[in-house]
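In response to reviewer comment 3 from the previous cycle, which asked for concrete evidence that the modeling workflow produces usable outputs, we include below a single protein chain processed end to end. The sequence was submitted unchanged, and the resulting structure tokens are shown without manual editing.
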Amino acid sequence: MVERGSVSIMQSGATGLVKVCAFLITVSCILWNLDLPTRLGVAVLTEQYLALVLGLAICILFLTVSRTRQRGGSVGALDMGLALLGLVTLVYTAFAYVGLLNEIAFRPPVITFIGAVVTVLVLEGVRRNSGWALFIIVAVFVVYALMAHLVPGPLIGRNLSLVQLVQYIGFDPSAVFGTPLKVGATVVILFVFFGTLLFIAGGGEFFTDLSFAVTGRTRGGAAKIAVVASALFGSISGSAVSNVVTTGVITIPLMRRGGYSKNDSGAIESVASTGGQLAPPIMGAAAFLMAEFLEIPYMAVAMAAIVPAVLYYFSVFVQVDLMAARDRFAMVDQEIPRIFDVLQRGWHLVIPFAVLLYALFGMNSEPEDAAMMSAVVIVVVGFLRPYGEHRLTLRKLLDAFVDTGTSMVELILIVAAAGFVIGILNITGLGFALTLLLVDAVGGSLVPLLLISAVICIVLGMGMPTSGVYVLLAALVGPAIVEAGVDPIAAHLFLLYFGMMSMITPPIALAAFAAAAIAKADAMATGLAAVRIGWASFVIPFIFVGTPALLLQGPPAEIAVDIVEALIGIFAMSVAVVGYFGRKLGPLERLGLAILGAACLPLALAYAAWGTVNLVCAALLVATLGYRLVVARRSVPA
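The workflow returned the following structure tokens.
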């Protein structure tokens, strides 16, 4: 009885400690971005703040995820000990960092201890929370760093002892406390907090209702609702899997009742949810990491992502519409609200978005400042006006702080581990060697380099969150693509796209598998269907890499022409994939449309006369598809 009581006390204590740590992660981020230390006349280094956040995240993780990767179970003595070890060590690091940094040249044992604790706990935390894939990748780099001087050929590196390595990757500002953790702990937390507040205030239901009102009365309305709702939701959540789980429970059963198969329902939801990470204005966490890596304003990243995101969702939208026409799916079988009614009930939820857009693009504010302003607006409107049964209360506001901190744990551990990799690339010289090796391997030819990079992105990304994939690839492959002559924004957006595609690409497609579970469909078949429906996402990156106009760079006339050509080409290829346009198309017709559509795409990577080919093929497609549309309409009885 006594033993059972002590276990209960430990469990309740662990639960309380998790809530406190999660609350402190969010609060400390807000206070840091308000420059509270400076206002109080206290000099605090960024690394001190990052050490505190990392310590809180490690504590939460070891109290919520067991050695066997089970969540929500009882907390053992070992897990409690590791949680407290990480918390105490990193809190001490935060307070003593300046003095320790001054002594690092003498390699004191205390820094070795800190580095070892951080290295071991971050790696174990990544294994528990994100799985073996990322753990193995980071572990391989750690082993390489210890044996780099023994590696033959161009990948030979600096000779490092174990003490030197753990002190560097577990303590140095260029490693664990580097750019990835800085962006995650100073920017992404605020946008997650913004999204959490918005959904508590009824934003999720508002988006779904608005999607119903806009597309519910059209053919294939069930799937179009999924596409629109997931795009809106995903641009805020930044997580493909959480997007699927949140919106999919509504949209997937709706698509099933509308006639879509189990596999297609899950595939449509997973593709639409995955694309939300690239849909401005908020996009996913990786977009903020990209802005920091490239040292450009976040606005530049968001502007460059607009046209690719439009092409992505245009392809999905066209396909679900044609699938509904081809298979004669029924209309949505429930009452559809009117757009005016939805906006009348939820107009106040549009205000935070307007503030966010104006702050980002009108005031040129830093992303974290724009997120804080928008969060304040949500709190005000959420307290004053409900949406349906959703009203923001003081208790819900406190829960939002805790939920934000808890949901950030995975990303914080991932970016900390990515800091290890970046640190190892720097200290061993492997980053420069990999760039030369990749460029030499393809003989300086850009297309093979892009193909190799795309495969690496998808393979490394299997089973990993998009943010983690992007950080690793930005350090490993990004420099080689830029060295080959690609614009840096285009190169990093290319990596982000293909890192994102691992979410819907078998054999490990996390977003597609999550959707398959909701649809009660075969996971692998749903993943393959997602690849078919999301085919454009594998083509679009190759287009904008060599066509700056699609990233809104260049003369307005050239931008307009290239966008129109891309839309026509994507449309034709989508028709070919579905095999229907007014009537079912034969294999030769589909092949011809696919070839003409591909020839219509503005591929500047091709030869100089490709622009003329684009215009001719675009004209042929418009004439052909227009004629088919007229014939199809005349054949329909009055």
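The first helix runs from residue 2 to 33. We consider this sufficient to address the reviewer's concern, and the full set will be provided in the supplementary archive.
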